[in-house]
Amino acid sequence: MRLSNIPLLRPWAALSLATLIGLSSGADTDQWKTLKPQANAIRELLSLDGTWNFALPQSREIEEDQGWTSVIPPKLQIPVPASYNDIFTDPAIRNNVGWAYYQRHAIVPQTWSEGRYYVRFDSVTHEAKVYVNDEEVGGHVGGYTPFEVDLTDLVSPGEQFRLTVAVNNILTWQTIPPGEVVTNEAGKLRQDYNHDFYNYAGIARSVSLYSVPDVHVSDVTVTTENDDEGNEGTVNYSVETSGSNDTQARVTLIDEDGNEVAEASELEGSLNVSPVNLWQPGAAYLYTLRVELLSDDTVVDTYDLPVGVRSVRVEGNQFLINGKPFYFTGFGKHEDSPVRGKGYDPAYMIHDFELMKWMGANSFRTSHYPYAEEVMEYADRHGIVVIDEVAAVGLNLGISAGLRGDEPPKTFTEDKVNNETQKTHAQALRELIHRDKNHASVVSWCVTNEPASAEDGAREYFQPLVELTRELDPTRPVTFTNVMGATVDKCLISDLFDFLSLNRYYGWYVQTGDLESAEVAMEEELLQWVDEYDKPIIMSEYGADTLAGLHAVDEVLWSEEYQTNLLRMSHKVFDSIDSIVGEHVWNFADFQTPHTGVNRVDGNKKGVFTRERRPKAAAHELKRRWLDEGFPKLGNGTSGA
Questions:
Q1: Rounded CA separation 633/91 (Å)
Q2: What is the pLDDT at residue 271?
């Protein structure tokens, strides 16, 4: 299908829902349809994390370079998982635009002589091509979701092979997030983009080899139901298998004490639990759904899936979890840390969760991309509520233009955000929902962050994507985060969503330094949203940049006191409006941003913690608010984590 043949409609024609459901971006493969591997009595799992050899290609076009056809010497070595940008001291690597090579040798265990085996990448930012010895064997487009390559017919058991991954960090108008490569005055390539976080690249999450039997579980989908009293629960499940059409099954639900509480013998069905232990915010309970495939009463494959029984719905201006109103306290966050960049680090992950627990935060948004699967699993285990966001940030040319004082260009055009972008966006949603559909902690899908929702073309672009999201998962509410300027009288898409998420910076980007005027303006706008929509409203971003250690008697911008006073002002407004059902401060911790503008000094400083996770005064202010027994918004049957 050639998009150039589609007639334009204000200013281009959106693809239909049916078309989006059937389309995928990148290679025409299902390598992204991967169930997270696990080790058990039948399956084996080997980590390929560690030190890999690293090199930049000699040519911008790797098809000319052919760097995977030879051994890359250990002159430069790189840790996996980690972004490569901050590891080395060479600016050519940090500022690289285009491809980079990762390489190591691996061995398929000799014992894997039966069944199938795969190499799985939890994420490669933003595009990957995978080579076994001299042959290209797979790849993936999209930097935050997993993919795998079947090695069974490529490498024999006991054989060592050379594994090379070519990693591309280029963003275009047809990627998610979008960007543009330009040539500067010196003739060098520069990557421009509209989102306000650094374009870290590399193998940011784990790589593994794993084996499965010929007949195996290839996917599991779970949804849950429960009565509002919490007495009875239902686990609806569907199992997909590979390798046989006449598979027998045994599906068992096991409680945390190891007791079997329900059993079935079909690949699709429902398991009833009475009494049920519900998954609650701040009080997680996880059952284990064990799927066993049988041949003549012999178990040929088994897979365990943690399951939390809970319900989520929106009614009027309330967000309900297990039938009770829930109030979100927490943050927009980033996967960002010194040296590692966006590389997954379990120490940082657990420490971040402990800091959220310390201050009473019960939730976060995965701004602005899917986080590592381990983060979602930890949230499941510890009762943290998650709004799960796809990497659709930067779909708004007016933001950066406004900061420069330029006339804002149009976003939705043939040569900017167009039908190809929409297809990529649809695939990103498809992959996110496939990966995270079974996580009890995930209570909503966020389709995009701060798009140009007041521009012509916004509705044509987003309506099919919202419909696709609901088609893929009808059990969770859908939202997007609305940017300042797309006010209630201008936004063209807010009616499409189940609840409103507003990013507002009163007292910082507007009414700068004047908190009295900021309070009046914020309350006035929020009441307009309440009057227009009978929907819950989450304040999905608010805050101020702060230089840790800068103190002032007066309300001085960038001081810790000003950040704290701005939060207090905002909370006063939130507490006065019943439809406000959550507050996510921007941001949890300071994070790195592009080095191409003067409006950031070593990153975004809106964190209530520094990048090294040292608390600013604002963190203590939030702790006092969120753990106060008199906190009015938590007097509705819910509590902090």
A1: 49
A2: 97
Residue 246's pLDDT is what? Answer: 76
Is 524 one of the annotated active-site residues of the chain?
no
Task: Give the separation between CA 112 and CA 585, rounded to whole angstroms.
Answer: 49
What is the structure's pLDDT at 10? 41
Closest CA to 213 of 184, 242, 190, 239: 242
pLDDT of residue 634: 67
DSSP character for 21? H
Active-site residue (options: 292, 389, 431, 541): 541
| Residue (of 349, 353, 343) closest to 78 by Cα position | 343
Marked catalytic residue, from 292, 335, 373, 450: 450
Host H or E run for residue 210: strand 207-212
Is pTM beyond 0.85? Reply is yes
Type of residue at 3: L
Residues of the chain with pLDDT under 70: 1-28, 245, 400-406, 597-598, 632, 634-641
- Quote the pLDDT of residue 564: 97
pLDDT of residue 356: 97
Contacts of 354 (CB under 8 A, 6+ apart): none
For 148, the token pair is 């795998």
Q: What end-to-end distance do the CA atoms of the chain give, in Å?
A: 49
DSSP-derived letter for residue 494 is G
Residues facing 609 on adjacent strands: 589, 615
Tokens for 189? 């390539």
**161: number of Cβ within 10 Å:** 17
pLDDT of residue 14: 55
Task: Please tell me the distance from the alpha carbon of residue 343 to that of residue 83, in angstroms, as a whole number.
Answer: 5
pLDDT in the model for residue 3: 30
Topology classification of domain 31-212: Jelly Rolls (2.60.120)
pLDDT (0 to 100) of residue 399: 80
| Tokens coding 149 | 């390559």
| C-alpha triplet 618, 619, 624: angle, nearest 5° | 95
Task: Indicate the burial class of 187 (C-beta count within 10 angstroms; 0-12, 13-18, 19 or more).
Answer: exposed
Fold of 216-307: Immunoglobulin-like (2.60.40)
Q: Where are the domains positioned within the chain?
A: 31-212, 216-307, 323-634
Q: What is the pLDDT of residue 637?
A: 40
* CATH number 3.40.640.10 is the correct assignment for the domain at 323-634: no
Q: What type of residue sits at position 553? A: V
Radius of gyration in angstroms for the set of CA atoms belonging to the chain, rounded to a whole number? 25
Per-residue model confidence (pLDDT) at position 640: 46
Helix axes 419-436, 458-472, angle to 10 degrees: 20
Q: Look up 450 and say whether it is catalytic.
A: yes
Contacts of 28 by beta carbon, 8 Å cutoff, 6+ apart: none
3-state secondary structure of 572: helix
Separation in Å, CA 296 to CA 218, 251, 299, 300: 20, 16, 8, 10
DSSP-derived pairing of the beta strands 207-212 and 216-226: unpaired
- Alpha helix (H) ranges present in 59-120? 62-65, 91-94
